[in-house]
Each structure stands twice: as structure tokens, then as C-alpha cells.
Amino acid sequence: MSEAPSGTDTRARIQDVALELFTEHGYEKTSLREIADRLGVTKAALYYHFKSKEEIVQTLIEERTAVLEDLWSWIATQPRSAGTRREFIRRYAAELHRGRYHMQVMHLIERNPTLGQNISGVERMRGRLAELMALLSPPDASPQRRLKGSLGLIAIHASSVVLRDLDLTDEERLAAALDVALELVD
Amino acid sequence: MSEAPSGTDTRARIQDVALELFTEHGYEKTSLREIADRLGVTKAALYYHFKSKEEIVQTLIEERTAVLEDLWSWIATQPRSAGTRREFIRRYAAELHRGRYHMQVMHLIERNPTLGQNISGVERMRGRLAELMALLSPPDASPQRRLKGSLGLIAIHASSVVLRDLDLTDEERLAAALDVALELVD
DNA sequence: GTCTATATCGGGATAGAC
DNA sequence: GTCTATCCCGATATAGAC
């Protein structure tokens, strides 16, 4: 699933490069020529693997949506307790270790307002994310508690940017974010 | 400064509409034709007031950067105490009441990765924002504390999105965010 | 599976009249 | 201060050869 058999799987290599450029320069600003150039192929080659630019980003997003929906299925069956929320945060963080570009895709959809108006699947993902955030506080929580719960997830996403200048490894950054997130959902 | 003499000041009306569309659909995706249409003028008319699309967004950003720099000048002269941080958060929140589109511009720069590569002034703003976030925790703080301090500011920015479905007024939302932010920088 | 060549479109920007 | 008309470019996407 997230193996990247770096030899022949051009399709996966396209996704890799596209995601990197989309997150770096934005979806709209990234041209297919740029992607093709970096791969050492031509634009037309991309169209053999994907029928449009949209489809490239769609496949990326659908893979990550599946992850969110798995997490949602799990949490929906659990009691709405602090213990559940803490366990959720741990599972979410673990996912960041496994799927190699979960975080990047999250940044992509957070930072590209244009995705979602046209691109199917993005709205569903944003919806799932909102639902998960709502579940990170007790059912009858005050707005303050609601916000803190949501900030638990946001902390994890933001840590890589906010702690960038702090000379930590990715693991250390994630560990710190995990501490903060666990506290926020508690 | 943020008056909008709604009669004749076309320049301000262009900024208004542009900001709204930029934040809604993204900077790249918004065309000058769209802006002009909504104002009931033509593209060429925009070029009388601004020499380029970039200049429109630049003026927006420069006004908000000035605000951040004022806040920075103030906090730099204060002791790095919890009291200072709390007062900073209060001043920041107050600014959201005054300047009518401070928040929108913040969302704009957060969510458009493409701004900043080319557009002068954005990097300076991002830098100021990072510096301010760093000052929201003690000088020798752990990564955890650093992250929590930064989340104080982020809480304010995120509240409008995160608490959207909660049927609160903007004031109530901001008040809740303020509570959480004050706690986070403490 | 990748190439060259091309069709087509929409965007930013300018010239010059009113 | 706003208009019409136009230029120019880069982007997505397709056709068809190899």
C-alpha cells in the first residue's frame, strides 16, 4: 500500500513527485510539465497513468480518507471517554509513522482552498476530519473544551511547522506533539 | 485606516472583493475578471488602481504586517513573563475586533503556499508571525511548552473554522478562543 | 509506456479611445 | 476613472507515431 517499489512503478512515482510539488508550491501553481520534468518524462506520459491532473490529487486524497474513515469507524464504537480520546490520538500519531505521506496530504487539503470546490472526495475528507475533531471532547462540552479537543489534532499537524527551527528529529517533534495533544483531549 | 468610505473609494472596494475571493477560492484560482465582474467594472479598470494582481495582495498583506510589527515592537520591550504573554493575546484579540479583515488575511497567507515564493512582504510577515509564536513561551521552554504557546495564537485563528457548526456569534467564538489561548500561554 | 506535435482555452497585462 | 480590443503566454488535454 505505501511501499513504493522504486523500480518500475511509475504511477507511484508520479504520485510522490506530484504530492511534493503540490504541497510545496500549491496545487494550482504546479504544472504537469514540472511534474513530468522532475521524473524525466513528458506531460503526455502522465496521461497514460492518470486521465487528468485532478485524478492525481484525487487518488492521493482517497487513500488518506480511507485511513480517516477507519479511525472514525473505530472511535464511533467506543465510549466517549477521555481514555478513548487519548487512544485515538495515539492511533493517529502511529498512522503518521506508517503511511509515509499522511501528513503531507493533510497539509495539502488544509492549505489549498481550491481543492474541494471541484475535486470530489475532498469534501468528504474535510467532513470526516471535522467529525473526528468534534469527537475529541465530551458530548456536552463547552466551546472551550471543543476547541481544545480539536487543537489536539491540530497540534500534531502544526508541530512540524511550529517546531521547525528547534533542531529536533521528526520523532522528537512528534513525541512532543503527542504529549501536548494528549493533554488537550484530556 | 479600516474605514471603507463605501461611496467612492474604488480602491478599497477592490481590496474588499479581492480578499473575499482570494480567501474563498484561493489566490491562484481567482481571476481578475471575477473581481472586476463582481464590482461591475472591467479588468482594465483594476489596472488603473493596481499595477498587477500581485500588488493587490501585497497591499493587503503589508497593512497586516504593520499590525504584527507593532505588536512585536511592544512585546520585545516587555519581560518574558506569563503576564506579558497573556496581555499579548488580549491585544491580538482586540486587533481582530478593530481591523476588519485581519483574520481573513491571516487565513489567506496560511492557506496559500504560493504566496511568499514570489510575493515580496509575505516572507517578512511569516517571519514576524513565527517570532511572535516563539515569544509565547518562556525563553528556555521545552518543545512541549513552545508548541503550546504557538497553539495559543493558532487557537484564535482556528476558532472560526473549528467552532463553525456550534451556532455561536463571532463574539462568543472569539471569547471562547481567548479563554483557551490564555490558558495555553500560561 | 513514452514520445512529438498540436488544439484549445483562459489568464494577466497593455494600448489607446472616451 | 473606466471602457473596448488585443497581445502574449502558459496550462490542460488530445492525436497519433514509435
Descriptive report:
Chain A has about 190 residues and is an all-alpha fold. The first copy, chain A, folds into two domains: about 10-50, Orthogonal Bundle (Arc Repressor Mutant, subunit A), CATH 1.10.10; about 55-185. Helix content of chain A is about 70%, strand content about 0%. Chain A has helices spanning about 10-25, 30-40, 45-50, 55-75, 80-100, 100-110, 120-135, 145-160, 170-185. Mean pLDDT of chain A is about 95; it is low at about 1-5. The interface of A and B includes residues 114, 133, 165, 168 and 177 of A. Chain A binds a DNA duplex (18 and 18 nucleotides) through α3.
Our count of domains of chain A comes out at 2
Q: For this entry, what is the oligomeric state of its chains?
A: homodimer
The largest sheet of chain A, given as strand count, sense and whether it forms a barrel, is: none
Q: How much helix is in the residues of chain A? A: 55-70%
Which spans of chain A of ≥5 residues are poorly predicted at pLDDT below 50?
Answer: 1-7
DSSP helix count of chain A? 9
Tell me the radius of gyration of chain A: 18 Å
How many β-strands of chain A, per DSSP?
A: 0
Largest interface: A-B, 38 and 38 residues
Question: CA-to-CA gap between the ends of chain A?
Answer: 33 Å
